[in-house]
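User: what does the whole thing look like in 3D?
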Amino acid sequence: MRYLYYPGCSLKCTGRSYEESLLPVFDELKIDYVELNDWNCCGATAYMAVDEAKAFAIASRNLALAEEQFKNEKEINIIAPCSACYMVLLKTKNYLDSNKFELAKIKAALRESGLNYEGKVRIRHPLDVLVNDLGVKEIAKAVKYPLKGIKVASYYGCQTVRPISTFDDARDPHTMDDLVKAIGAEPVDWPLKTRCCGASLTGIVEKVGLPLSYVILNEAAKRRADVVATSCPLCQFNLECYQTNINTKYQSDLRIGVVYFSQLMGLALGISPKKLGMDRLFIKPEIVYKAVKGGETVYV
Amino acid sequence: MDTTIDVKAFAPSGATNGYRDIHRKIKYESELNKGFKNRVAELSHGEKLYSCIQCGTCSAACPVSHYMDYTPRKIIQMVREGFKSEVLSSSTVWLCASCYACTQECPKGIKITDVMYALKREAISGGIYPKRFPSAVLAGSFFKQVLSFGRNSEGPLLLKMYMKTNPLMLFKNMKLGFKLWKTGRLSLKTEKTCKKGDLKKLLSDIDKQREEVTL
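Assistant: Here's the predicted 3D structure for the full assembly of 515 residues, as structure tokens:
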């Protein structure tokens, strides 16, 4: 089956290494994908706050583009790796599915631009695709360098698992932990898997945002995690890039690597850190590099 | 209605020091906005505001409720009572980070996050929101950028936001910006969709539809 890949704005900028690591992992695992042509911004949370009808309209343009690009395929699965994109596209789809009146309005507007929306698309998160479509067994089979002894705190963030996503438990999700186990690492049992990282508040209203990121990092460190794995570009940014600010504010000495789950998978599959965009990290997870085949550089 | 009383009128001549303005702390029922709850319910697609049992699970689940003027539970009750200006000018709606914890946990299935979105929209359209509050400014700049380019470029967006709210933050975050730029994670390039007119046309059609409805 072929998937449509919807990167979203973050994966082309601050979250580039998410894209840089996810796509090689897909290649390695023989997951066939193609990028959505001429995609536009999903609207994120900001658009919804200004104009709802327009927010749904711009998100639905992506769904219509997907139907156009995959008109000859049996199933249309859009992979949206960014939490916000995933949630917004899913919310839009559900909204249009359950609201015939609004659907007719948006369809009419799309038709004016030469697009058509039938409602055949499915919105998928990469965790969902990897665990439920491919399966952890297949992934475990493909692992070349298991990350033995590495403790990973899987951090899902908020919008990946709630409120409308159905592929995982909203309170105690496990898909990322399953992947962590499949690549030979050890998932840390911790309660803050889905706690809010502060989202855009961390950057703009520091007083409120920083403590949220601090609590998460502190808990991960307390549970002796070697590295925090995320599935959202904004979570990764907040938890990693603000660590210096957090340490100054709370007089702490946190220094914990925050990577994308796809980067850990890539390492285990034998892809070099550079190819996985890991030289873009502020805090290099040396301990993970060391664990891969006893510290030897064996990457292809 | 202005509830401030000018106490200087009552002060002995020349002895204004030590006196401060006195405010009436309680609103009269006649000053409440009766239609507000219906308006909010309509904006949030008939969210079941009326079935809220005031249990406070939302406030407990909310990671930022302790910074808010009014907690989510209070906001819902205030909406129902008609405290329109207090609700719309509060920090609550702009501190909501849309993490959906309240929506997930609400025992009555009220989509509280969507109620917050409805309040944000109402505050913006009515012009009653903290003008330089960064979240509101960010939402506005984001909206404009996507409207003109179809995509959002994080570098220019943040630059604009800081210039409008607190330019000092730019200096404070310069080091971070430099590090991001060095690692290739910050670009001031503007991202665009190829068929630019496409999205603009779509949105103007939505505007047209709205005009038809109001006509």
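In plain terms: The beta strands of chain B are 4-5, 22-23. Chain B touches chain A through 57 residues (CB under 8 Å).
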